[in-house]
Amino acid sequence: MKLTTKLMTGVASAAVAMTAALPAVAAEKWDMPMAYSASNFHSENGVTFAECVTKGTQGDIEITVHPGGSLFAGADIKRAIQTGQVQIGERLLSGHQNENALFGFDSVPFLAPSFDDSANLFEAAKPAIEKVLDEQNLVMLYAVPWPPQGLYFKKEVNSVADMEGIKFRSYNNATSRLAELTGMLPVTIEAAEISQAFATGVAESMISSGATGYDRKVWESLTHFYEVDAWLPYNYVMVNKGVWEGTSDAHKGIITSCAGEAQERGLQASKDYTQFTMDGLAEGGMTVGPAGDELMSGLRSVGETMTAEWLEAAGEEGKAIVDAFKAME
Ligand code: PCA
């Protein structure tokens, strides 16, 4: 045997030995940015989902959650997943309304103001949303609604006229538009930043769930929460399409089943948190209760304008979503 052949044989057998020592599939690490604080129910749900995947795949896919906008700020999470900077993550669906009006289906005022209605509306919108996401290199894994949206202020408010000139924290196009139509001054701020915004007076009001006000301890700055039940916006978890297509069928099955469980668990948590967090706001010293008739009728008329504007912007596909939803009622 010539020396070179001998050497090559040695290299080959070393390679065989190394392969035998490795697991069948190299473990993958997926980073999962989330915009909301670690203590928020969506984030806690995301951590349980990540553990389910890591455990179910026996560590072949290990998902690490990064809550509170710590890896990417909320507004940057979708792009980070689309471009493959991270594999998976969570974002507020209506946060993309500026890209495509369809994403704002869940923030049309008073269209689907209860958990049951919002579940129907989501089912009606899902095929259209999945199509848009697919074109953007994304696959939706699960989605969970926030509790119904109400209005926060640092004074008593009985009518839309009382809202004139207030600095209003918005989180998507619909909330900015609501502010404009009620004479308020919108400023877009991520939930992770709102405690500071309220403490420094950058914002004095917002529309959100009891859950977000509770998470961010807004009673330190604000005084009133009015139940309005304007809409229930969704958070969704998405994965990069290329990453998803590169995942084995067995692992896809495990992830899909963990996602199904997360969707159910998240919905239940959202329902449970509705009263729990409103009680928490009251314990924190806030006045919590339904909005008065005059305020509600003013908001309903603003809602009509916003509904017409959304239908105009979302075109035929938007109308088809609303028609499909109405057919379910
Ligand atoms: N909390 C999120 C979105 C809706 C909600 O209830 C927020 O305020 O950013």
Structure, described:
There is one protein chain. It is built from 10 helices and 11 strands. With 329 residues, the chain is α/β, with parallel strands linked by helices. The chain has one domain: D-Maltodextrin-Binding Protein, domain 2 (3-Layer(aba) Sandwich), CATH 3.40.190. It is globular and about 60 Å long. The N and C termini lie far apart (82 Å). The N terminus is likely disordered.
Summary of the model, kept short:
The chain is of the alpha/beta class and 329 residues long.
Properties at a glance:
D-Maltodextrin-Binding Protein, domain 2; alpha/beta; binds pyroglutamic acid; disordered N terminus; 329 residues; 50% helix; single chain; 3-stranded antiparallel sheet
